[in-house]
Amino acid sequence: MASQEMSQKLFTVSSAPLWHSGRTVRLTMIMTLLALLPAALMAVFKYGYDAVEVIAWAGLTAVVTEFAVQQLMKQKPTGDDFSALVDGVLFAFLLPSTAPVWLVVIGSALTVILGRMVFGGYGGSPVCAPALGWCILTISWPDFMDLNAMLLSWDLVEPLSELKYFGLDTVAAISPVSLLLGDNLGALGASQVAAVILGGVFLLGIRQVRWLIPVSFLLGVFVTGLVFNILDPNVYASPFFHLLTGSTMLAAFFLMPYPSASPSRQIPMLIFGFFGGVLVIIVRSYGIYPDGVPFAILLINLCTPLFDMIAPKPFGGR
């Protein structure tokens, strides 16, 4: 008896004293929604009620789906932390503004179910949930995800589709300023490049997002795009074109730094971001889809456990 009591006393373990930073999931999501607000307003200004409808249905479906699955799993509801709402809005930003309601609802539900809840909920997913939802819809219903086909009522072009199907000459007249201001066709929120950059800078400024992944991702896109452009400038667009088209900027600030699907150490974050950018150009150049950003994100997400193995050696270790 005495030895057991001594053993219990010797091996008593308690946690170290901690100081809470004050940052919560709810506050983080509120800041993310604020960062997405400028792009959402620009989308509504450009596409009107269609944009409001897509964003509203995507956000509502994400929240309701999370609540329903949590009830089935006997988990405590977490709708008040707004994480499902953020995923729904990010998913909506990748859609055409004229996407039918049934497509938005199915995609948003799959975003939450397959991108979050099958892994236990927010914080457990090894992939970026909005990118996964977009990829499922693009593979399953490509006609409804075709930006040119879904936005025929606008007398504009979708730059990446023009480049993919008609060659470099068709996008030569598109200026970087028009790409920044969203004066071309594109996904609902992702095409509002200047507004997305503004939101990303806001997140960097409040230190909610560290600069490592966004900067290395954009560097990867730029360097790889430059290499392709140098190899054949008559076929491959300039790196600036790739930076300002599709969902590149949305990925840099909102999708690539997805908390549970990205590394947490500095060197892994830099490698993760850079090779994610490399994959964007490879998928766009050799893939069948004009904008390969979500596919590139999912591919690089699968490598996150490998990148996390890159860690400093313990003091005194060999």
From TrEMBL:
Biological process, per Gene Ontology: transmembrane transport
Does the entry feature the keyword Transmembrane, yes or no?
yes
Write down the Pfam families for this protein, in alphabetical order.
NQR2_RnfD_RnfE (PF03116)
This protein's UniProt keywords:
Flavoprotein, FMN, Membrane, Phosphoprotein, Translocase, Transmembrane, Transmembrane helix, Transport
* Keyword set includes GTP-binding: no
**Can you name a GO cellular component term?**
plasma membrane
Transmembrane intervals: 25-44, 51-69, 89-114, 121-141, 185-204, 211-231, 237-255, 267-287
Identification of the protein by name: Electron transport complex protein RnfD
Q: What's the source species' lineage?
A: Bacteria, Pseudomonadati, Thermodesulfobacteriota, Desulfovibrionia, Desulfovibrionales
